[in-house]
């Protein structure tokens, strides 16, 4: 898996080393565990997925964070990326909208003695109590750059968020450039994420 990531252009040694240390199979449902080290997203229940390793790597690398930095993750899902960020020495805050997924993620993370702070709610509005963050990573795709998340970044901090339609998203790397919430955006090519559902995301479907 690590060879595959470096072949695809991931060169930050700290990301690669964290992904080498965090055992992905612990976050994968037992019947799918033999696929844990494939470069693929896998179902984790509730219609959600554990992100593809390449996606976790590219998003983590794009944050440009260092040990001790404060990072907010929106979409805990399986908890895998939470563990990768924590393994890099970051102070991790994570929000998941589906309570049962957060419960399972917590079980795995706590069993591995990972340090993080979590809650179940709509992450599109961020987590004001702990702001400003050095970086924010959104692991589900929304229709636009969530405004509250830009507000909760420190100047110079980066927000990594997939934005687009429900079918395809571009990974946006947003750097906050002023206290007035101005920002610069860099785009990475097409990705497919599960939908970001919430106030500044997609509406909840009734089906
Ligand atoms: N990083 C996770 C990715 C899980 S998929 C992993 O590797 O396992 C994305 C997650 O985002 C899903 O669990 C979904 O329920 C969650 N999500 C979607 N909209 C959200 C929102 N507004 N707030 C918090 N979590 C949200």
Could you explain how this protein is built, in words?
By secondary structure, this protein is of the alpha/beta class. The protein has one domain (2-191): Rossmann fold (3-Layer(aba) Sandwich), CATH 3.40.50.150. Helices cover 25% and strands 28% of the residues. It has 6 helices and 9 strands; from the N terminus they run H-H-E-E-H-E-H-E-H-E-E-H-E-E-E. It is globular and about 50 Å long. The site of S-adenosyl-L-homocysteine has 25 residues, from strand 2, helix 4 and strand 4.
Task: Look at the structure and name the CATH superfamily.
Answer: Vaccinia Virus protein VP39
Structurally, the number of domains stands at 1
Largest sheet: 7 strands, mixed
* Cofactors, ions, other ligands: S-adenosyl-L-homocysteine
Structural class: alpha/beta
What topology, given as strand order, has the largest sheet?
5-4-3-6-7-8-9
Reported by name, the CATH topology is: Rossmann fold
Give Rg in angstroms. 16 Å
Strand content: 25-35%
- Give the ordered list of helices and strands: HHEEHEHEHEEHEEE
Poorly predicted segments: none
Q: How many E strands? A: 9
| Mean pLDDT across all amino acids | 96
* CATH class placement: Alpha Beta
CATH architecture: 3-Layer(aba) Sandwich
Helix amount, in percent? 10-25%
What's the N-to-C terminus distance?
36 Å
Q: Supply the number of helical segments.
A: 6
What form results from the Cα inertia axes? globular
């Amino acid at each position: 898996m690590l060879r595959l990531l470096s072949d695809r252009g991931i060169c930050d040694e700290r990301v690669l080393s964290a992904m080498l240390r965090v055992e992905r199979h612990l976050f994968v449902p037992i019947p799918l565990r033999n696929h844990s080290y494939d470069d693929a997203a896998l179902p984790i229940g509730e219609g959600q997925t554990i992100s593809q390793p390449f996606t976790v790597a590219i998003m983590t690398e794009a944050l440009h964070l260092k040990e001790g930095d404060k990072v907010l993750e929106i979409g805990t899902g399986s908890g895998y990326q939470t563990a990768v960020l924590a393994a890099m020495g970051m102070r991790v805050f994570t929000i998941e909208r589906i309570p049962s997924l957060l419960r399972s993620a917590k079980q795995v993370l706590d069993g591995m003695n990972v340090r993080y702070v979590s809650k179940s709610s709509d992450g599109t509005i961020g987590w004001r109590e702990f702001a400003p963050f050095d970086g924010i990573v959104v692991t589900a795709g929304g229709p636009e750059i969530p405004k509250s998340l830009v507000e909760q970044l420190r100047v110079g901090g980066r927000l990594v968020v997939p934005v687009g339609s429900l079918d395809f998203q571009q990974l946006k790397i947003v750097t906050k450039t002023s206290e007035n919430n101005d920002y610069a955006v860099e785009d990475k090519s097409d990705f497919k994420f599960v939908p970001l559902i919430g106030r500044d995301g997609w509406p909840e479907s009734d089906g």
